[in-house]
Amino acid sequence: MVVLVYTNSPKGPDTQKLSAAASQDLESSSPLDQLSAADIAVNIAREARLPEATAVTNTADSENASLAVSSSDDSVVSKPQVISDGLESNKDIIHYTVKQGDTVQSLADKFGITPETIRLSNNLGGDTLTVGMDLLISPVNGLVYRVQPGDTPESVAAKFRADTSQVISFNDVELTHKLKPGTLIVIPDGTQAQPRNTVPVIGTSFSFSFGGVGYPEGWCTYYAAARSGAPPGWGNAATWAYYAALTPGWHVSTIPRVGAIAQTTANHVGIVEWVSSDKSMIKYSDMNGIAGFGRVGYSDKVPAHSEFQNFIYH
Fold this sequence. Notes:
Blueprint: H1 13-28, H2 31-47, H3 53-66, E1 94-97, H4 104-111, H5 115-121, E2 134-137, E3 142-146, H6 153-159, H7 164-170, E4 184-188, E5 198-200, H8 220-228, H9 240-246, E6 251-253, E7 261-264, E8 269-275, E9 281-287, E10 296-299, E11 302-303, E12 308-313
Helix pairs in contact: 2-3, 4-5, 6-7
């Protein structure tokens, strides 16, 4: 079994070789080795009193759930984390100057991506290109996006209906979990941003806190747990339904109800504030989503299942 302890130190050739070799060892190890590695990372973070200890704990809880061994096959597990192949990342974004005869379709064919990827990456409303125009070309289908203040992997993924784990791995923010404002990132398989009619609550802090191991302040899980009474130990938002179903007194449903935790398909949770009589529409609040990082925001009426897959309550 190989345990990797990452730092923010620059990666030299020797470090890269070691990481590659270690990755091969970890890939060939048993699922229980991977689970143990996650738990060891938690112990190291706690012993060193790192400020990221809570986040590491939640990630480990989610990994333990997602790497659960199937009852029909004790040697194969599903891996929720997207592992980058090392060939494509946000460092492969191309700045392309439009030439005579270029069209959106011809450039899509040239770079092996969809025309919509080019349109979304460059805010194009149609197919008209001007000679000399500077275009951002994504290395994969989705879009190129310039990070705004308050953006997080979760909020960006939710905004463009993408997968949070892909946003994290593709843009190499596994260690920090932070996006630097002004930088260009790639959102694999991202689509047109879904408009929201929102009324943010002014303020950058929240008064709830937890004893022991809880959820990182400012994250969606922090707010949802404070509002709903969800216990610590449910991991990241993606595994809340899994753990809720195992927790006495908690229930998971596809039918919304006021006060329930709303879980999206993009690793995000919020709280249901209102439900229409036919259960087809809801209003919800969240943190680190509608109003930006560390802020609570409220949505207008939205379809109950436009973003949400589960409603968790007790």
